[in-house]
UniProtKB/TrEMBL annotation:
Organism placement in taxonomy: Bacteria, Candidatus Uhriibacteriota
Organism: Candidatus Uhrbacteria bacterium CG_4_9_14_0_2_um_filter_41_50
CDD domains in alphabetical order: RNase_HII_bacteria_HII_like
Enzyme class: hydrolase
Record's protein name: Ribonuclease HII
Entry GO CC: cytoplasm; ribonuclease H2 complex
Family: Belongs to the RNase HII family.
InterPro entries: RNase_HII, RNase_HII/HIII, RNase_HII/HIII_dom, RNaseH-like_sf, RNaseH_sf
GO biological process, one term: DNA replication, removal of RNA primer
Cofactor: Mg(2+); Mn(2+)
Reaction(s) catalysed (UniProt annotation): Endonucleolytic cleavage to 5'-phosphomonoester
Highest taxon listed in the record's lineage: Bacteria
Length: 205
């Protein structure tokens, strides 16, 4: 199985760029909670050989990689868009918003590598790469930062709303989650627009 490389970063460095930011998000398809973006600048000598798309790595593996990325990155940041913002502006603009909020914290960024998309309202040169989290190390690192951060947020929400099982499904539309929404109704962190477009199971309670 091919793993992400620094090929894109090396190409850009050869053209004079220095702070090349990989960007990715987590939580776009969830029914509850924020969308979270990670932004990471990795040095070429970071030596994190196991980096990959966060979806291909176990929870324990992601935690280990999170520690390595945050320790070895030249810069890293997290940006978020809340469930209220998602309801207000839509998921795609909310993804862009979360990514911009992460990038804006890296003041010396001079090029952006984005998983899948190019971002509006960004003046820094950028490149959107399909399946970038599987091809490019800095984007893979950003996917780890985004996923681990969002999972922690959803586990914290579980303490506030324990009946929904957020610690298990992290807000995604699992059978358990849909059943609990049908039984209890939505809570404050549910995305109301998303719920209006799905068929909930009939509660037997």
């Amino acid at each position: 199985m091919k793993k992400p490389t620094f090929n894109h970063e090396r190409e850009l460095i050869s053209k004079g760029f220095r702070m090349i930011v990989g960007v990715d998000e987590a939580g776009a398809g969830a029914l509850a909670g924020p969308v979270v973006a990670g932004a990471v600048v990795l040095p070429l000598n970071s030596r994190i050989g196991d980096l990959n798309d966060s979806k291909k790595i176990s929870a324990m593996g992601r935690e280990r990689l999170y520690s390595l990325v945050t320790a070895r990155a030249l810069a890293w940041a997290v940006g978020m868009a809340t469930n209220e913002e998602i309801d207000e502006i839509g998921i795609r603009p909310a993804n862009y918003l979360a990514m911009r909020r992460a990038i804006e914290q890296i003041s010396e960024a001079d090029y952006i590598l984005v998983d899948a998309w190019t971002l509006p309202e960004i003046k820094i040169p950028q490149r959107g790469i399909i399946r970038g989290d599987q091809k490019i190390k800095s984007i893979a690192a950003a996917s780890i930062i985004a996923k681990v951060t969002r999972d922690k947020i959803m586990c914290e929400y579980h303490q506030e709303f324990p009946d929904y099982g957020f610690d298990r499904h992290k807000g995604y539309g699992t059978e358990l989650h849909l059943a609990q929404i049908s039984k209890l109704g939505p809570c404050q962190i549910h995305r109301k627009y998303f719920l209006s477009n799905i068929q909930l199971p009939t509660s037997n309670s």
